[in-house]
Amino acid sequence: MKLGEARQALTDYTVFTLSRRQRIVCMLISGLLFFGVGILFYHHWLAGLILAAGCIWVPKHWTKVLLERRRMTLSLHFKQALYALSSALAAGKSVENGFKESVEDLRMLNPEADTDLIREFTILRTRMEYGQPIEEALQDFSDRAKIEDITNFADVFITCKRTGGDLVEVVRRTSAVIGEKLDIQQDIMVAVAQKKFESKVMFAAPFIFLIFLNFTAKDFMEPLYSGMGYMISSGALALLACCYLWITRIMDIKV
């Protein structure tokens, strides 16, 4: 296999592709949910089918969610790997041996795990065993990940390696800076976790309240399912959708 073909076979962390099974399950669950919303708001199967057609856009949204989770997990594991690499270099290991030992340290943290970073560091180790410079392997990983912390580390590491700088100090300080940034991200995630839960409860409350009224006060709800009631239901549903998008954007905090 040529080098270009081998690179294409490696993981690109800027994209995420759902499997056929995942896509079908995602569309099925979202379709049933949307159909139920249509029945709840309009009491008509045709409205339920129209809303259920919206499930074709859900896999795209779910793909973005899974991609963001994957990239966040990769960043957190990279932080742990830098600590392991810093310790190995401080103990007098060479750069190449430091990367090799960091793989084993990551596996010791969770022997049963097969994370993206463990696979990437295993690839780095294999490339070095075949004689490829660590700079090229690390740059390729950085190009495929396109994560700011990994890119910054790769740039600093490659520059230091070529100019003969103090790699131990560079790795130590870089790992400390990236670690502090990720700690801040985790603090923010913890701080907004309760607010996210509250927003989900608030978003679900109108649906639960509507279900309750449909079971306990059918006569009171009857005008909502005829004439102007359909327009009111459509406006309320559109307002709820806008609120969901607004809440999602507010809670998306970047550091």
From TrEMBL:
<keyword id="KW-1133">Transmembrane helix</keyword>
<keyword id="KW-1003">Cell membrane</keyword>
<protein>
    <submittedName>
        <fullName>Pilus assembly protein TadB</fullName>
    </submittedName>
</protein>
<feature type="domain" description="Type II secretion system protein GspF">
    <location>
        <begin position="84"/>
        <end position="213"/>
    </location>
</feature>
<feature type="transmembrane region" description="Helical">
    <location>
        <begin position="48"/>
        <end position="67"/>
    </location>
</feature>
<dbReference type="Pfam" id="PF00482">
    <property type="entry name" value="T2SSF"/>
</dbReference>
<feature type="transmembrane region" description="Helical">
    <location>
        <begin position="229"/>
        <end position="247"/>
    </location>
</feature>
<keyword id="KW-0812">Transmembrane</keyword>
<feature type="transmembrane region" description="Helical">
    <location>
        <begin position="24"/>
        <end position="42"/>
    </location>
</feature>
<feature type="transmembrane region" description="Helical">
    <location>
        <begin position="201"/>
        <end position="217"/>
    </location>
</feature>
<dbReference type="InterPro" id="IPR018076">
    <property type="entry name" value="T2SS_GspF_dom"/>
</dbReference>
<keyword id="KW-0472">Membrane</keyword>
<dbReference type="GO" id="GO:0005886">
    <property type="term" value="C:plasma membrane"/>
</dbReference>
